[in-house]
Amino acid sequence: MIIGLTGGIASGKTLCSDWFAARSVTVIDADIIAREVVASGSPLLQELADVFGRDILTADGDLNRGVLRVRAFVNDAARNRLNAIMQPAIHSRLLQQLQAAPPKPYRLLSAPLLLENELDVLCDLVLVVDVSAATQLSRGSQRDRQRRDAIAAIIAAQISREERLRRANFIVNNESGIPATYRQLAALHQRFLGWVQQHDS
What we know:
This protein has nine helices and five strands; from the N terminus they run βαβααααββαααβα. By secondary structure, it is α/β, with parallel strands linked by helices. It folds into two domains: 1-25 and 105-200, Rossmann fold (3-Layer(aba) Sandwich), CATH 3.40.50.300; 31-103. Strands 2-3-1-4-5 form a five-stranded parallel sheet, with helices on both faces. 28% of the residues are buried.
């Protein structure tokens, strides 16, 4: 069984995926893959620098994600160009990791653009981590040290909260603190394990 995990920026996807990973669930994380494919010296990183400017690189030659975000989310054309460069490489490596991952107890595919990039077709169920836009702005600006208008531009570019929730099989509310979120995850984990056991019996 493959569970798709998604949510808007700064919703708490990593908090949730780390919880599942600590319980021996294999996590395939599109954010980690996205960092790997643009490692220092990689052809993709060079292509990004050619398109978006050399100042998206740090002094050490690594990707400055904050600068790239501002540059790429300035308009639809720039964002589409970024996706055209990044998504094929991410998708290819993601499929490789899914196929290689042990299927037990189940696999978790964590991707911020799970629905936008139609990765949900690879999943049996979709789990959405949900917070309000106000919480996204507050957490995102504190976590990433970016201006609130830059975070707002990313929120606007992603699928709407309403559409994300409509397409979810399960929703985790991450507004009420970590203990409350963990309790929701624990209940879902038991349900997922139960379904796997029923399928195997």
